[in-house]
Inverse folding.
């Protein structure tokens, strides 16, 4: 899971959502959830428009905002419809998820702390790396906070298929970084750009991001002991600029 920046909606779409929320509110309170569900199911075009907006800021190639592995196919209600029907049509409550994360792990779980604040991390609000540390060698998350622990458990972030995938992603990224470095040595800017584009579109954007972050922290040589070439590339300003999209080099 990585921090994502949610763009504002176009005015027309925001107004459509607003009217839908008024529609939910127009029935007695005890019927809100049923009404919200019926309305959500019947508004195919609206769901399509929202899905389009979510895919625009999803990690990599339209990946799930929780696991970062599968394609994001579902619109997840961060705070579930059953608990907060009035948030069914609220943009800030929508995330792009895969069906595994949405229907098999998170479902209607939405734990809160003693003061009623959500414990789950919202990648469009919270920086997951402040709550979860990723072991690059094991591909596993270790909780740094209570919210990190709850999120790891509710979303199943350490399920076997994800930890193995993250390990593979780290290996693949190592090869890609080596390729970038040799292209740099040859002055082959086209290949450098192509490699960076591939890195950006890899599943498990959390692995790249962890590598970038850990490369500048104390103990980086130890973390990258078996991938010293990767550390060299990760520390190059040129690479970091290209990765963050701030490079002015033409592809
Ligand atoms: Zn997922």
């Amino acid at each position: 899971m990585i921090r994502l920046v949610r763009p504002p909606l176009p005015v027309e779409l925001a107004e459509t959502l607003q009217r839908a929320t008024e529609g939910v509110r127009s029935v007695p309170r005890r019927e809100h959830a049923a009404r919200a569900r019926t309305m959500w199911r019947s508004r195919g075009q609206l769901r399509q428009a929202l899905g389009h907006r979510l895919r625009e800021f999803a990690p990599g190639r339209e990946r799930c905002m929780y696991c970062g592995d599968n394609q994001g196919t579902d619109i997840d209600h961060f705070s579930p419809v059953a608990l907060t029907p009035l948030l069914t049509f609220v943009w800030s409550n929508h995330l792009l998820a895969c069906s595994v994360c949405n229907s098999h792990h998170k479902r209607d779980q939405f734990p809160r702390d003693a003061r009623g604040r959500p414990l789950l991390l919202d990648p469009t609000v919270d920086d997951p790396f402040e709550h979860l540390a990723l072991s690059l060698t094991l591909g596993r998350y270790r909780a740094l906070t209570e919210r990190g622990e709850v999120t790891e458990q509710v979303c199943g972030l350490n399920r076997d298929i994800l930890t193995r995938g993250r390990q593979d992603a780290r290996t693949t990224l190592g090869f890609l970084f080596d390729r970038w470095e040799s292209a740099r040595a040859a002055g082959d800017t086209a290949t450098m750009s192509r490699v960076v584009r591939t890195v950006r579109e890899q599943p498990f954007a959390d692995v790249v991001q962890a590598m970038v972050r850990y490369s500048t922290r104390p103990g980086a040589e130890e973390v990258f002991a078996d991938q010293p070439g990767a550390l060299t590339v990760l520390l190059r300003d040129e690479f970091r600029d290209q990765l963050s999209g701030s490079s002015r080099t033409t592809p």
User: Anything to note?
Assistant: The mean pLDDT is 95. The beta strands are 74-77, 94-97, 132-135, 140-143. The CA atoms of residues 76 and 84 lie 13 Å apart. The first strand starts at residue 74 and ends at 77.
